[in-house]
Recover the amino acids of this structure.
């Protein structure tokens, strides 16, 4: 009986394509195959197989089955679920899932292992080397380091046949986690939370828990115990830990490596291709049992996923807004459900969505109310900039500068937090008043002094800072308005000329390693003042940091979108939470023009729950998430008239459904990006409505002409 294979391709196609299975191929669902498409051959994945019925027109045959690990069926289910939820084509998530499968295979690695033979002569160094080698194969360098012997000792043992060299495929080079090791002795509330998670792991199946604990309360320690329980409960179980920033992965990888004496698989965009393939294969074969990575790790082909941890679950970096649009925290819960896995969401400032689920009893709610040991939360004070005016061209107020001086004198560290990259967010011509913007985008050009360029942060466009105003031609008329991290650094240098000062922002650090080095320098006390954007304000432990100064606490509130208050609270609570770990008390100073704002009041009083309750009430009254659903549609095109005509027609074609309101079309706040005009719709629905299905139905009715693009964003986080 011949069969038909439906093959899903990592391309923008509406559905899987059918091919005939050659008689002898013996395909299975999930197999990676090569198939003809037009005049090309492309690689895809078998999504389904069914018997061929007579009378159909002949199909092209599958060209080959690839020598590659198949995609597990549940991974395929997840990809299709994600596409449906995001109202997008399955090719998008499939392409993400196959990113590692397409990288060239890593070369075999050379390892040394014990043969069982005894050497002729046993010195203490040789005994140490053999003892370590008997616990499993490892590279010669690792063996020498762990046994504290020289390379010569190892070579001697190899020559005598007590150790042997073997080449093994890269994806087999994942050490089995050592589950006999124990972690830190937990305090009472940590032990209670860990106990509940361990019970959850023992029970198995899909469950979600919120691990809600202030910064420094030991959430990582607790979820390490959950991972231990998951790995111990089933020899094939795999654990995935998601983090919002690449810069955070190293610290967590280090803690897993220490806890289980085995390095986890690392997954993010900066992993070299060969390494990527190694992790992909290791995850697909089940040899790699722990993965620590950024949001795209969620699409890896896990064979037996038992636990997903989403650390800093509130972080908006989990929302991917280019290409395939998704919210990784939400998809993690969906994947947990499909896999029958447990999900742990960890945060000191959980999202309203997650808190609502915990309150309603859909998630277990585990709280760690205090910092571990003697560490206390910092004292937070507000500087009212309406009363304590800043001097022109200065951004640090006298009370903050005074606190910095005290901190510096005490040999302790300061973090100045400003979520703004570059030197100045705006360059203005004082002759004609022109604000410099990118040529094809309606957004201000940000001045960067390190590079001497003006940069559009939306599109990446950049140009050297001009000598004359491009508008009126005046010379020496361009002035920099407002501060970015580089400008605050400049001010700090003038104030503290002898201090060691560094900037941490995505422009000043080229890659993850450089970021890691800066964080290490900070941890080791080699920096006195760190000026940082949010990249450094999350998750790190800086034992000697006792002062956090928030340069512009109101920054995040200005946009005024749905989550402005929530996000500002989360960000500032995280940033101020960096101060005063271990046994040194810390303090935080927030500079604000709106000290009476509920966000500032809640931060000062350290009363998260009152703030959350007030926010929830407002959201409920407005029927906004988590009480209702939102979707956005961004329609863009090069020609304003054609765009206008199309969005009008689109509005008329919106399905009429009770419980769904369509607002728009309206001009997007950023009306022009890369030469394309932009219009927006906002759609609100009740919670009971399947908004993805509604959007899919709407999309099916429209036929955008070639130049017009329609992007659907379910549960939008950006409103520009
Ligand atoms: P969180 O993830 O909640 O910010 P961490 O797990 O990173 O907290 O813990 C903060 C610091 O306290 C870390 O340096 C950690 O090693 C330490 N710590 C937490 N719990 C314990 C414990 N039970 N014993 C020893 N050290 C602990």
């Amino acid at each position: 009986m011949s069969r038909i294979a439906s093959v899903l391709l990592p391309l923008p196609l509406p559905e899987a394509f059918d091919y005939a299975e050659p008689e002898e191929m013996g395909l299975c669902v999930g197999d990676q195959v090569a198939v003809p498409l037009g005049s090309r051959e492309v690689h895809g994945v078998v999504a389904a197989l069914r018997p061929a019925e007579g009378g159909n027109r002949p199909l092209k045959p599958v060209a080959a089955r690839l020598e590659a690990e198949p995609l597990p069926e549940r991974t395929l289910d997840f990809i299709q679920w994600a596409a449906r939820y995001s109202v997008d084509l399955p090719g998008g998530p499939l392409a993400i899932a196959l990113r590692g499968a397409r990288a060239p295979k890593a070369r075999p690695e050379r390892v040394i292992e014990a043969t069982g033979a005894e050497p002729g002569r046993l010195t203490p160094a040789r005994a140490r080397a053999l003892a370590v080698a008997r616990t499993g194969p490892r590279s010669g360098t690792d063996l020498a380091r762990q046994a504290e012997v020289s390379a010569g000792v190892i070579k001697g043992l190899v020559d005598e046949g007590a150790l042997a060299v073997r080449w093994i495929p890269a994806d087999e080079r994942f050490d089995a986690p050592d589950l006999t090791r124990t972690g830190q002795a937990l305090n009472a509330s940590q032990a209670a939370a860990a106990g509940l998670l361990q019970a959850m792991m023992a029970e198995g199946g899909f469950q979600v828990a919120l691990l809600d604990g202030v910064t420094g309360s030991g959430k990582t320690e607790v979820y390490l115990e959950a991972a231990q329980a998951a790995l111990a409960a089933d020899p094939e179980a795999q654990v995935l830990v998601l983090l919002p920033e690449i810069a955070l992965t190293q610290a967590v990888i280090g803690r897993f490596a220490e806890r289980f004496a085995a390095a986890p698989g690392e997954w993010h965009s900066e992993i070299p291709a060969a390494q990527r393939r190694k992790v992909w294969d290791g995850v697909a074969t089940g040899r790699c049992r722990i993965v620590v990575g950024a949001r795209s790790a969620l699409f890896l082909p896990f064979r037996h996923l038992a636990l997903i941890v989403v650390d800093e679950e509130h972080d908006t970096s989990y929302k991917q807004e280019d290409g395939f649009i998704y919210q990784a925290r939400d998809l993690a819960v969906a994947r947990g459900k499909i896999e029958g896995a447990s999900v742990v969401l960890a945060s000191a400032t959980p999202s309203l969505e997650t808190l609502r689920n915990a309150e309603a009893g859909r998630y277990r709610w585990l709280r760690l109310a205090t910092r571990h040991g003697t560490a206390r939360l910092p004292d937070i004070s507000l500087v009212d900039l309406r009363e304590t005016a800043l001097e022109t061209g200065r951004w640090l107020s006298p009370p903050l500068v005074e606190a910095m001086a005290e901190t510096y004198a005490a040999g302790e560290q300061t973090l100045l937090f400003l979520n703004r990259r570059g030197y100045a967010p705006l360059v203005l011509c004082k002759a004609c008043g022109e604000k410099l913007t990118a040529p094809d985008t309606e957004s201000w050009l940000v001045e960067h002094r390190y590079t001497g360029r003006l940069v559009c942060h939306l599109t990446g466009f950049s140009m050297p800072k001009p000598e004359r105003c491009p508008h009126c031609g005046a010379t020496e008329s361009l002035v920099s308005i407002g501060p970015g991290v580089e400008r605050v650094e400049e001010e700090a240098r003038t104030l503290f000329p002898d201090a060691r000062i560094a900037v941490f922002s995505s422009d000043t650090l080229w890659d993850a390693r450089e970021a890691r080095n800066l964080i290490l320098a900070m941890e080791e006390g080699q920096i006195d003042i760190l000026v940082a954007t949010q990249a450094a304000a999350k998750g790190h432990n800086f034992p000697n940091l006792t002062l956090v100064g928030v340069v512009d606490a109101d920054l995040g509130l200005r946009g005024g979108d749905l989550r402005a208050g929530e996000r500002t609270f989360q960000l500032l609570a995280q940033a101020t939470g960096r101060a005063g770990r271990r046994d040194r008390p810390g303090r935080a100073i927030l500079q604000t023009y709106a000290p009476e704002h509920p966000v500032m009041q809640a931060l000062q009083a350290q009363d998260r729950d009152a703030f959350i309750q007030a926010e929830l009430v407002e959201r409920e009254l407005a029927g906004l998430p988590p009480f209702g659903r939102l979707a956005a549609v961004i329609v863009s095109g090069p020609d304003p008239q054609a765009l206008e005509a199309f969005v009008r027609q689109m509005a008329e074609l919106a399905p009429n459904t009770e419980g769904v309101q369509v607002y728009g079309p309206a001009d997007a706040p950023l009306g022009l990006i890369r030469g394309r005009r932009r219009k927006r719709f906002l759609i609100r629905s009740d919670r009971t409505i399947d908004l993805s299905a509604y959007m899919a139905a709407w999309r099916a009715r429209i036929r955008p002409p070639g130049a017009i693009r329609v992007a659907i964003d379910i549960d939008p986080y950006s409103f520009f």
